[in-house]
Amino acid sequence: MSAYQINKLCHRVYHDIPFREAVKADPAKAIADWPLTAEERKALLEGDVKKLYEWGTHPFLLAHTTRWGLFGLTPALYAERIQGAKDPA
Amino acid sequence: MAELVAAVGVPHSPHYPSQYPKDGPQDTPRTYREVKAHLDAAKADAIVVIANDHFNTFFMNNFPTFAIGLTEASFGPNDQTRMPHYDFAVQSSLASHLLKTAMNEGFDFSVTQEFGVDHAMLVPLHYLTDDVKTPVVPIWVNTFSAPLPTARRCHALGKMLRGGIDSLPQKMRVAVLATGSFSLEIGGPKIDPGKRNSVPDIAWSKHLHRRIGNGEFDEIVAEATPERMWKAGNIGGELLNWIVMLGMVGKDKPRYLADHDEKDGHAYAAWRWD
To answer: Which residue of A23, B30, B83, B259 has the fewest CB atoms within a 10 Å radius of its CB?
Structure first.
């Protein structure tokens, strides 16, 4: 699986403030048009950072989500969920 | 007849400018000021900055291993870092000469002619210059998104850049500024509970600090394998920025080396040849 679209999405929430606000307000709606697999979409919406990391999402980009509590992710919850994640091949 | 008159290495943590005023009494601004005194004394006409982009100037759709900025003017920070905005000049004749030298020597740089720069360049320039009035040559190294260039290649790149400075026909006093952490994890499984980051390998940063002080640069190049740097955190590859600079320095020991920072593992060093 390529994490490119997830990386692109995390990059966009950092640099595109209206998009960030849309993700904050209604995440499922904001990412509805993104070309993600059903599995990727589910992991994002559930804030499953362990899975997203293991698929190859860049951790610097992934951690942007906690700046605004996107996908329900607080820094504490993120740090808890990322524990034990395996480095992507 | 250009000459390298100074080399400085410092960290670039993006929270520093909002936390520590340039003239503040804390260790961080005080140590930047120690390095600034050396840079000021060297009276550089241009500063070559060796840093890594954090997906702000470039992204994964087109991410260069080595890139150089070739234009007249730039700006930053372009990544919402809480610090003053700077518009600054690019030393385009030096940039152009370094690019030609690189291509002739087999280092195939990517070139950008329109760009902003992120905190990695501007946090150090904020602390080490007076409002970035000295023209800059930005050089980016991918220390951030695997696979990274090897330490050996980065060291050779530094040697080549030194040759490029030495062969510039015009009279110019050139300084080099390299920046980065030796041990840092952001957003990966090695972060501390409740935090976005951690310093996973303070022993490695202490070891590198001692090697720098002793002038043991070839040893650093030999030891800085991808696995070793990764063990020090997913940002540990920033050591490569320093290794490019060490290639430019040659064999000399630093004239200034701050005590090892036991908390963040940061190094602050300065070399001078004036």
So the answer is: B259
Residue B67 near residue B98 (C-beta atoms within 8 A): no
Say whether B60 and A62 touch across the interface (CB within 8 A): no
Evaluate the CA torsion angle A70, A11, B75, B144 in order and state its sign. positive
Delineate the domains of chain B, giving CATH numbers in brackets: 3-272 (3.40.830.10)
How close is the nearest chain B Cα to the Cα of A7, in Å?
Answer: 8
The token pair that represents B229 in the structure block: 């740097």
Judged by a CB distance cut-off of 8 A, whether residue B192 touches chain A is: yes
- Look at A85 and B189 and tell me if their CB atoms are within 8 Å: yes
Torsional class of A71: left (φ above 0), alpha (ψ -120 to 50), beta (otherwise): left
State the Cα–Cα distance between residues B144 and B64, nearest whole angstrom: 11
pTM above threshold 0.90: yes
Evaluate whether B251 touches B165 at the Cβ level (below 8 Å).
no
Going from N- to C-terminal start, the domains of chain A cover 4-82
Compare all CA atoms of chain B with the CA of A8 and give the residue at the minimum distance.
B60
* Tens of each residue's pLDDT in chain B, 274 residues: 899 999 999 999 999 999 999 999 999 999 999 999 999 999 999 999 999 999 999 999 999 999 999 999 999 999 999 999 999 999 999 999 999 999 999 999 999 999 999 999 999 999 999 999 999 999 999 999 999 999 999 999 999 999 999 999 999 999 999 999 999 999 999 999 999 999 999 999 999 999 999 999 999 999 999 999 999 999 999 999 999 999 999 999 999 999 999 999 999 999 999 8
Inter-chain touch B59–A60, beta carbons under 8 Å: no
Which residue from A31, A34, A35 is spatially nearest to A47, judged by alpha carbons? A31
C-alpha span between B145 and B174 (Å, rounded): 29
Contact A79 B192 (CB under 8 A): yes
Closest to B230 measured CA to CA, from A50, A3, A87? A87
DSSP B26: S
Number of other CB atoms surrounding residue B67 within 10 Å: 21
Q: How many inter-chain contacts (A to B, CB under 8 Å) are there? A: 61
Q: Is B147 on the interface with A (CB under 8 A)?
A: no
Task: Using a CB–CB cutoff of 8 Å, tell me whether B191 touches chain A.
Answer: yes
